[in-house]
Records
---
Amino acid sequence: MVSGDWWTNPHLDNNECVCVEVTDPSQPLNYVDGQRVDPKCTQTFDLREPATGKSLRYVASSNEEDVDRAVRSARREFKAWKKFSGFERGNVLKKAANIIRMRSEELARTEVLDTGKPIYEARMDIAGCADTVDYYGGMAAGISGEFLQLSNGNFNYTIREPLGVVGGIGAWNYPFQMATWKSSPALACGNTFVFKPSPLTPLTAVMLGEIYKEAGLPDGCYNVIQGEGDTGQLLGNHPDVNKMTFTGSVPTGSKVMEACAKGIKHVGLELGGKSPCIIFNDSNLDNAVSGTGIHDSLLDNAVSGAMMANFFTQGQVCSNGTRVFVQNSIMGPFLAKLVERTKNMKIGNPNHEDTKVGATISEEQAKKVLTYVDIAKKEGASVLCGGERVVPEDSLSGGYYMSPCILVNCEDHMTVVKDEIFGSVMSVLGFDTEPEVISRANDTEFGLAAGVFTNDLKRAHRVASELEAGSLYVNNYNVYPVGVPFGGYKKSGLGRENGPEALDLFTQVKSVYVEMGDVEAPF
Ligand SMILES: NC(=O)c1ccc[n+]([C@@H]2O[C@H](COP(=O)([O-])OP(=O)(O)OC[C@H]3O[C@@H](n4cnc5c(N)ncnc54)[C@H](O)[C@@H]3O)[C@@H](O)[C@H]2O)c1
């Protein structure tokens, strides 16, 4: 629990925030059999606060024995949990959703501590997570098979059964979201779960374990092991894990898939992206501004959309539309509004209410992002604004802050336009025609998301159907209402999270044939 009520005072300096249990090194962050446990592993890793760069605590890693202990706990409890009715499992999840809502401020503050994202965003994240857990709580009672009438009174029915023990591995940009998006559909279907969060953001996954327990989840159904890549590898290779659900980069996803291939395990992959956000000039509209032919509100919406497609969580969002294609005839007014609004985003202490840009996750990631800006300049792009390290105030001088960057004069072949940067760097590219932009938008190995801004209804649906991506946005970007499936085409992933699709992916079908007559054997 968080001590005191520091979160109610937006003027408190982040250094004064004390999340006692999660930052106290004597409190273990592994969670097995319904309690925090000390791992056997003697290795630790340093957890740093992105907002200040200061060490929060050392976190104990998990070795083979620790991973095995968590998987055995999940295996043991699977036998009982799968026998609960869907309705009973759903009730546990719905209670957990309510506890998440009651503890939302504490969870949001811990997420800020771990990720450096601004508090307004962390609150949105936690509210969305509660909704997801609630959603799967509601869906659990409806998980069922089908009945098929056959000839002579014979029939067949199917049962949707859980897979067994599911292993989850998360990235660092949405830590609580990854723990909830993966565990709640898995648990709803009757699986048990072992989760390894990113070593950069280990804090809230263990809080979720305590919330599930309070909601009535039997001990052993949800477990957390902390660690780096080698711990993730041990989990993926464990013979008693039946499915891996992974979020992270393409190279690591490929390794996880390889481990699953060896063990013939189910695998779900949520990987990287380099998504397009396409902004058309609907020139036949009234209320044209400054002779450009674009409707004022469409322009405002398009600028808002481009910013939402790039600047949440310091640009560290897998679905970001970092290639912003703007029809050339509206480039001038679009850029003017975009730059004005981007410069107005307040960069600062992520715990402050008015902060819109917090800290990048780590020094390494911040340096990587700034290096990409340098490469872009060398390859001929121009910086319209941002792309620099920022020190918002003296007390945050060790934090990893940078100003959101807008690049123009970009070309499709440039490194910055091809690579996933995972930081606040938007590349703006001009285009003239619809076929041209569709072809350029699809010219990528990724296919996670895409956006199209237009007031032409037919064009919107035509373009949406042509774009090779798993999540399409028409006249908005990066919105994730509960129940909407999410996941990638091409190298952006396999399978879907969220929505009813996830339930199919956490179950397997057992088919039962029933003979009502005599056996007519040809022998
Ligand atoms: N599609 C999505 O839903 C989604 C969401 C968020 C982030 N991402 C992607 O995640 C990436 C950024 O996250 P990251 O830097 O944490 O990714 P990463 O691939 O470096 O690490 C992800 C996780 O895998 C673990 N890991 C590392 N090596 C492993 C191995 N050999 N076997 C098993 N696990 C291993 C890490 O410890 C971490 O928990 C970006 O590419 C981003 O696009 C995708």
Note: The longest helix spans residues 119-140.
---
Amino acid sequence: MGRTLYDKIWDEHVVHTEEDGTAVLYIDRHLVHEVTSPQAYEGLRQAGRKVWRVSSVVATADHNTPTTGWERGYAGIADPISKEQITTLDANIAEFGAAAFFPFLSQRQGIVHVIGPENGATLPGMTVVCGDSHTSTHGAFGALAHGIGTSEVEHVLATQTLLAKKAKNLLIKVEGQLAKGVTAKDIVLAIIGRIGTAGGTGYTIEFAGSAIRALSMEGRMTVCNMAIEAGARAGLVAVDDKTIDYLKGRPLSPNGVEWDQAVAYWRSLHSDPDATFDTVVELDATKIVPQVTWGTSPEMVLGIDARVPDPDKEKDASKRGAIERALQYMGLEPGKPLNDIFVDKVFIGSCTNSRIEDMREAAAMVKKLGQKVAKNVRLAMVVPGSGLVKAQAEREGLHEIFKAAGFEWREPGCSMCLAMNADRLEPGERCASTSNRNFEGRQGAGGRTHLVSPAMAAAAAVHGHFVDVRTLA
Ligand SMILES: CC(C)[C@H](C(=O)O)[C@@H](O)C(=O)O
Ligand code: SF4
């Protein structure tokens, strides 16, 4: 019987399965950041344990790092708790070791889900874990990657294994060509709009179809990044030439004979033609329009040509209540066209959309519009996902386009994706954001988040309100 890509990677890594289905899974790559690792290392220390396979660990500081003031070094980290988390990671890696460590201020530092792939730390067929829910991102490389909790971080550090139960297989097929201006972010928001934030619960999602094949690796990472917002712990895309080309020559990628052997294996990393999925969902890419979230969950999303929903039209009482609460929090009136929503801040960044292609997409929109950030927008910021992305963008002159238009060009990190560092929304502020979560208070207490693509965020910054980027071509 044919196997899915998920089945194949799972089978390769199972060490043992209990009668109730609980499996011991071997872990190839462990990505570590400063938020979810301190207690795990402390646990090892107290038990007198070492890290089982130091060469599997790749670490960086990202959530708490400031995006300004790097010239002041560690003194530039204003918040004492942030500073402590960052220095604790430094000390833990110094004591326990890692294959690679990109600390605060280093040139390769960045968001863990950006630096993993760009350094070749994420390879096809691997099991990848990180104490972070957006680890699903790495599934874009045909790796089985998912987030784990702090106690599991300790377990993996100590044993190189994870206890897990196999999920079901969900195939999401997106067929057809995207319209101009419609991007990977719009695909994944449209998927979540369709299946809901619980649609993928209990599944590993494989994203397939011609629209997914046509995406760059960056685009595939954007899609897999938000698999977790669709309820699935892991998302996958089959390996193809793009995957292999992306990885060639990366610092931690294999080379020489090992590269050839690896590529031969990687080419088997796709679902067999006769593989069966527990559930199949199909989307027509030609019908996807630029998406904007209007509420406080990623599933509260509509095309830019829509209006804010009217709770009175919802028959289901609990859904009606959810819409009412969301609209109240978001300060929105039913029936308002989405393109009449004005924003106070714009954030282009996060592990969803801070790679070089996202920077290019946003810069191209700013350049095309040829105007400055609108007067009503208090702050428009672009935060590259890593030091390497920043350097590449600067080589291409993208920072000059942003700065000339009035955007701030910052140092890499999670930044305003979540309020764990100095970048945040003030109560009541409304933000066009390229991140992945729009929960209440996510970007700061009382802050209002609208999730969009980089092109949509750039256009909102210049116009001061949302606009359909398809009309700007
Ligand atoms: C801080 C971390 C544990 C968290 C996560 O797991 O995703 C964060 O990255 C987020 O995006 O909410
Ligand atoms: S950028 Fe945002 S979603 Fe991604 S790891 Fe950082 S906080 Fe989490």
Note: The chain has two domains: 1-288, 291-472.
